[in-house]
Design goal:
This protein folds into 2 domains: 50 residues; 119 residues, Jelly Rolls (Sandwich), CATH 2.60.120. The protein is of the alpha+beta class and 224 residues long. The chain contains 3 helices and 11 strands; from the N terminus they run ααβββββββββββα. The protein is 28% helix and 31% strand.
């Protein structure tokens, strides 16, 4: 006697339905395997090709910013690349007469020190226009020192109008700027003569100036 062997999913009464279920199950399992393989491959590729993080902590970023600021402040070739509270000031000098060694106050930002740029349109000597007849003194009064000035011949008209420029405050604190006649003679300034000052940054020096130390003394003096 031969026994009939029944395979899984085989229904003797409905052979087509059993075959359909078997094929559907195999297709679902195959699809799941393919999806899993795709996920694994994609994750591996993403991990291998993701660049390392360039983010730094706040403390590290502050240290970097501080170092850059110090480097800029001490550099003689400072290049201003951003507008940070720029305050322009133009001082017309028409009608100002300065005898030898006389001076005029151009700028005072006490108690705040400032960093910036100065440009001057002044008369000059026809033979040596690159040597200014005037001296720009900067610092914290009464301690003032001469500022090195550059001569711009391209826009100068010797000897009536000579243009000079310089940068101040990138070193010792500057609160005061003075223009002094060092020509050895009296100079009468005319219509086009002027000084332009632009300040880029203000800060509070670590030590008080002589002027600041005088203020409390003046306030404590008895009134007459």
């Amino acid at each position: 006697m031969i026994e009939e062997v029944t395979y899984p999913f085989k229904d003797p009464k409905h052979p087509d339905l059993s075959m359909t279920i078997a094929l559907t199950t195999i297709a679902a399992v195959s699809l799941a395997i393919l999806v899993y393989i795709a996920v694994v491959i994609t994750g591996t590729y993403t991990t291998q090709n993701t660049p390392p993080s360039t983010n730094t902590s706040l403390a590290e970023q502050a240290k970097i910013d501080s170092g850059m600021s110090q480097q800029i402040a001490r550099s003689l070739n400072y290049v201003h690349k951003a507008d940070i509270n720029i305050a322009p000031l133009t001082v017309p000098l028409h009608g100002v007469n300065l005898s030898a060694n006389q001076f005029i106050l151009l700028y005072d930002s006490t108690p705040y020190a400032s960093k910036g740029h100065i440009a001057l349109n002044l008369p000059c000597d026809a033979n040596t226009p690159n040597v200014p007849m005037f001296e720009v003194l900067i610092g914290r009064a009464p301690s003032l020192t001469p500022l090195a000035l550059g001569y711009i011949p391209q826009i100068s008209v010797v000897p009536q109008m000579c243009v000079y420029h310089g940068q101040f405050g990138f070193g010792d604190p500057v609160t005061d700027i003075v223009l002094k006649n060092i020509s050895g003679k009296t100079v009468s300034l005319q219509g086009p003569h002027s000084v332009a000052i632009s300040t880029h940054e203000f800060y509070t020096p670590t030590t008080p100036s002589f002027e600041q130390m005088q203020h409390p003394q003046q306030q404590q003096q008895p009134q007459k």
